[in-house]
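Title: Prediction job returns without error message
Component: structure pipeline
Severity: low
Priority: P3
Assignee: unassigned

Description:
Job completed but the reporter wants confirmation the result is attached to the right record. Sequence as submitted:
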Amino acid sequence: MQRFIHFSVSIIFVFAFIVTAQPINPDGSFEDATTGEKFGTDIPGWSIITGGTGTAIFEIVEDDVYDGSKSLKVQLLTLGTNAWDIQIVNEPFNVEAGTEYKYSIWARADVAGVILNFTIGAPDYSEFGRLGQASLSDQWQEYTFNFTAPAGASEARAPIHLSEAANNAYIEVAIYLDNLSIEEAGAVDVEQENLLPSKFSLIQNYPNPFNPTTTITFTLPSRSDVHLSLVDVLGKVVREIAVGSYEAGLHKVELNASDLPSGVYFYRLEAGGFVDIKKLILMK
């Protein structure tokens, strides 16, 4: 029997997985690129643009990825006057006017607090949508928003602006980007037979930082005894988030920490011999 202590959680069990539509944008995962430092249009499907005094090193790496075998590392050296003086642009790809799309990208920085702008727009620089002033975690995290292609739109580009003034405090920081995906919102196909995760995993909570609720997600390849706990920076368990026997699948836990003080905490998953721990930040 599952039991939950001290605060409300909700569990979502996913037994029939949904296969999302294919992304409409080119190589958002950087898998078609070769490793090493890149310039201009060296990365298939991407353009590197710098201007003014903005300078950065763009590099395809294999040692720090969210998924697959490669990601893009950007090391900020000097900032420009504008946020777009250092940018990486995924382009071009076709959109259909009046259609709603979902933008999703995974990112992290060596130091939490780095600010990026994730945008989508036309080749003439008019914007369709954006997630502006996004604060990066030092752990991989998904950043997502929906947008609708306006009347007359047929082609789009997805610039990521890195030269935000606030980043002056983080000069020479490394930023990692992976798995940019732009696809039709709600366009899904349900597979006939149920698919199960192939491995245990603990996913970074979202949002993070948070106040006062956040969602923790984990996957199980088989039925397992689960122990998910919240600990403070001294290693003391302050909450037993979820304890019990869980079926194979993807599980989401909503954590309400309204009664906890602001600060850094860690959540630890033990299941079937698998152990992982991740950091979360409660900011009131």
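Comment from assignee: result matches the submitted record. The first strand starts at residue 11 and ends at 14.
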